[in-house]
């Protein structure tokens, strides 16, 4: 049980955009040589819009009794946080557009917005796994990036597959999702991110 909790925490969906950006800037492409100052700014934008703001709003929501638990296990409470997360992602996307040399990162952010929007709409009626949508989206990014930049990310993809299995195991072990919710989350994340990045 402790192992499952550790996996769920380490592979939190909020961390996937940041991990994806790290892979992009260490992909063996021209992006590896992007100016360090620019890379730092992009990291800062991604961290603030996808991690810090979504996390920092949770204590406020709990303090105002809008949510009962920071873990967001209740579907309605997850919806509230997902909507706010969408707003933060849009803010980050707007700022990333100012750096055309790394437009791929802005496209990834936009793809993530579309993925979260789809997950939010599904969550109106059914509880879908956000963790699996996150790791599925990461793998979708790896596939799309490999196609677009002819970059070999086989090792990254294999590690992602292993983590996807571990995350699925942890969510089922903790009785937080059914198998169908786990599979659906993975498919939605992978297909949405991959197709959006290829088409944008």
Automatic annotation (TrEMBL):
<feature type="transmembrane region" description="Helical">
    <location>
        <begin position="79"/>
        <end position="97"/>
    </location>
</feature>
<feature type="transmembrane region" description="Helical">
    <location>
        <begin position="180"/>
        <end position="199"/>
    </location>
</feature>
<feature type="transmembrane region" description="Helical">
    <location>
        <begin position="128"/>
        <end position="148"/>
    </location>
</feature>
<keyword id="KW-1133">Transmembrane helix</keyword>
<keyword id="KW-0472">Membrane</keyword>
<feature type="transmembrane region" description="Helical">
    <location>
        <begin position="155"/>
        <end position="174"/>
    </location>
</feature>
<keyword id="KW-0812">Transmembrane</keyword>
<feature type="transmembrane region" description="Helical">
    <location>
        <begin position="38"/>
        <end position="59"/>
    </location>
</feature>
<feature type="transmembrane region" description="Helical">
    <location>
        <begin position="6"/>
        <end position="26"/>
    </location>
</feature>
<dbReference type="InterPro" id="IPR036938">
    <property type="entry name" value="PAP2/HPO_sf"/>
</dbReference>
<protein>
    <recommendedName>
        <fullName>Phosphatidic acid phosphatase type 2/haloperoxidase domain-containing protein</fullName>
    </recommendedName>
</protein>
<feature type="transmembrane region" description="Helical">
    <location>
        <begin position="104"/>
        <end position="122"/>
    </location>
</feature>
